[in-house]
Amino acid sequence: MPDFVDIVFGFLLNGYFRHWFAHSLVFIPFNILGGLLLTWLIKVSISKLFKKENSVDQNNTGNGKSRLNIWTFSVTVGVLSHLGFDLISHDVNLLLYPWVEDVRWLPDWWYASWYVIQPPLSMGPPYSIGFHSLVWLILSTLGTFLFYQFVFEKIKHVWKR
After folding, report:
1. Model confidence over 122-146: pLDDT tens digits?
2. Rounded to an integer, what distance in angstroms lies between the CA atom of residue 113 and that of residue 131?
3. 66: how many CB neighbours lie within 10 A of its CB?
4. How far is 36 from 64, CA to CA, in rounded Å?
5. 93 burial class (0-12, 13-18, 19+ CB within 10 angstroms)?
6. SS3 of 127, please?
7. Which of 6, 150, 23 is nearest to 89 (CA)?
């Protein structure tokens, strides 16, 4: 959710993407509300795509309140883990924005730049590649693997029925 918000508002207000206010502690409640709205929109869209007559929602967790609790927990974990991963995998940090920008929580060698990518002007400021980028690559690969493992297990479960 923080990247989604910063992409939309970054392009609208700055003309390019950058980590911005959605990556701060102050914005966490808005990230959660936006995540819940997107979750609901996705659920409604997918339900309409796959709706069959006389079908029963297999993923129904009971009443709407318990579903909302699960969604809220999931979105909150997603927002907090995103902010936590960004702390160790990016060279910029806006966790304490608007009071302090780019707090360095880790040793200087963590943020040392090995190479700098100069994007086109419309894409924002230069991007530093370093140890933090390696951490980002590892976390992204692990997250992708775990996500697809979950998806394939769900598909396998549906095909066995």
Report:
1. 667 788 899 999 999 999 999 999 9
2. 8
3. 11
4. 13
5. buried
6. strand
7. 23
Three-state secondary-structure class, residue 126 = coil
Other Cβ atoms closer than 10 A to 23: 24
What does the DSSP 8-state code read for residue 97?
T
pLDDT in tens, 46-83: 888 777 544 445 555 557 788 889 999 999 999 999 99
- In sequence order, the 6+-apart residues with CB closer than 8 A to the CB of 88 are 106, 110, 132, 135
Residue with tokens 């609901």: 40
Q: At what angle do helices 2-9 and 28-49 cross, to 10 degrees?
A: 100
For helices 2-9 and 64-89, what crossing angle results, to 10°? 70
| Cα gap 50→82, rounded to integer Å | 30
Does the predicted model carry a pTM greater than 0.85?
no
